[in-house]
Amino acid sequence: MWLPIRIDEQRPEPLYHQIEVQLRGLILGGQLKEGTLLPSIRELAVSLKCSAITVRRVYQDLESEGLIRTRQGTGTFVAGVEAVARDEHRLERAAEELEKAVDASLQLHCTLEEIETVFRQVLSKKTESRGGDPLDVDR
Amino acid sequence: MSTAKETDAAISLRGVRLENDRFVLGPISCDIPKGMVTAIVGPNGSGKSTLFRALLGLEPIPSGEAEVLGTSLVGARDDGYKSRIGFLAENPHAHENQSTADEKAIFASHWYPGWDWERYRKLMRHFDVDGGIRLAKMSKGMRRKAELAISMAHDPELLMLDEPSSGLDPFAWKTMLEELRRYMEPGDRTLVLATHIIEEIKRLADYILFIYRGKILGLYEKDRLLDDWRTIVVQSDYAPKGGSELLQRVPGFQGCEEAGAGVYRLDVDDPEQGEAYCRENGFRVLAVQRMELEDILSCLIRKEEAKR
């Protein structure tokens, strides 16, 4: 099966890290459902142009986190993910994105107070455009 | 430089040196890991084909130790290991020109106890080759595919391919990639291929063995190599002179080139430390880029040349 994983050659993070973060995201984000058969190590290595050593390392890490399971002779499957873990992941991802925005603002020489003001403005704009409900956001 | 324990090596060489009228190979030492794909990469005439011939027992090894699939190649030996190897030579053998692919397969089937006609037919079908045609009548690519099918039909423990994709069109090339991936799937097979095709190395290789003028420049885990080797582009406003000497001492230094007034392209294999060092010494870091395999190879060759 094909996985929507993209390697960005210009990123400083090592290949295994890029693959691991994205695959973990696909599982915790619910795009890969419990029981889905993952590609074999060699298959994924060929399609991502990385070595089998790298993929094996990713699978081992995710297996020890309980996100995937390997059954001898049949392959590697997505394990069941608890709702708690999925929620945690959601908040972690949101925090990462916000951090990027804060970094970008700091590079523009904004003070923390300015950033906070802007952030509140953005939030209230969202609330208004959604008819008072900030949660009703298109995904 | 060695990356695997001796017991995990399909091929293990220690100080191997051999010489014929045209060429000196070695001394070379390396362990080619079992269950993995190793690409042998180097300029033409580096000794790749001589190395293959030595591993097949076709060139005597007068000094050093060499072991293939657990069999020592030095002194009296049991030739049984050869039937567990599949080999595709760089050039076709002229004496086989008048045989059809199927006739060559019949000959090979007597030689290899593990020969499997079903596998042979499947490979030929997948490669879209008619086995009834004489090898000399086939196009270059067609013959390549037939010979590849024959070299793989006994499901060898070790498959050695010398420039396997030469003459293949892009579609045949994809089919070959697929078959080689399938061959590696069980996890206990070892593939060693000499190739110049960067895309092939990227898709298939786990390890890269760089070879040059009969010597090994290094055996690297591919992804680690691509992760570690980076070009840092730096600029210095106040130290354009003498900047180059300062940069020679950067951690993980592999090479340096002036790319304009006060701008240097610095090749390192420890990018984090390298970048920090540049900043500490008053250089502005303009960019940090991954290196292409061919640039890494040229860098290794330049270093080797500097030693000569």
Molecular structure report:
- The complex is a heterodimer of chains A (139) and B (308).
- With 139 residues, chain A is mostly helical.
- Chain A folds into two domains: 15-78, Arc Repressor Mutant, subunit A (Orthogonal Bundle); 83-129.
- Chain A is built from five helices and two strands, in the order H-H-H-E-E-H-H.
- In chain A, a hairpin with a 3-residue loop joins strand 1 (68-71) and strand 2.
- The model of chain A has no long low-confidence stretch (mean pLDDT 88).
- In chain B, strand 4 and strand 5 form a beta hairpin.
- Chain B has helices at 48-55, 101-111, 117-127, 140-152, 170-184, 198-204, 222-228, 243-248, 271-280, 293-307, and strands at 9-19, 24-33, 37-41, 63-68, 71-72, 85-88, 158-162, 190-194, 207-212, 215-221, 230-235, 253-258, 263-268, 284-290.
- Chain B has two domains: 6-225, 3-Layer(aba) Sandwich (Rossmann fold), CATH 3.40.50.300; 230-290, Alpha-Beta Plaits.
- Chain B is an alpha/beta fold.
- Chain B has a six-stranded mixed sheet, with helices on both faces. In chain B, strands 2-1-4-5 form a four-stranded antiparallel sheet, with helices on one face.
- Chain B is elongated.
CATH topology of the largest domain in chain A: Arc Repressor Mutant, subunit A
Rounded to the nearest angstrom, the radius of gyration of chain A is 19 Å
Strand order of the largest sheet of chain B: 6-7-8-3-9-10
Number of helices of chain A: 5
- Count of helix runs of chain B: 10
Main sheet overview of chain A: 2 strands, antiparallel
Low-confidence stretches of chain A: none
What is the averaged pLDDT score of chain A?
Answer: 88
Instruction: Report the mean per-residue pLDDT of chain B as an integer.
Output: 91
Quaternary structure state of the chains depicted:
heterodimer
Distance between the termini of chain B: 20 Å
Q: Give the C-level CATH assignment of the largest domain in chain A.
A: Mainly Alpha
Distance between the termini of chain A: 25 Å
Globular, elongated, flat, extended or rod-shaped: what is the shape of chain A? elongated
Helix percent of chain B reads: 25-40%
By CATH, the architecture of the largest domain in chain A is named Orthogonal Bundle
Report the order of strands and helices of chain B: EEEHEEEHHHEHEHEEHEHEEHEH
CATH superfamily of the largest domain in chain A: Winged helix-like DNA-binding domain superfamily/Winged helix DNA-binding domain
The secondary-structure element order of chain A is HHHEEHH
Can you tell me the CATH superfamily of the largest domain in chain B?
Answer: P-loop containing nucleotide triphosphate hydrolases
How much of the polypeptide of chain B forms β-strand, as a percent range? 25-35%
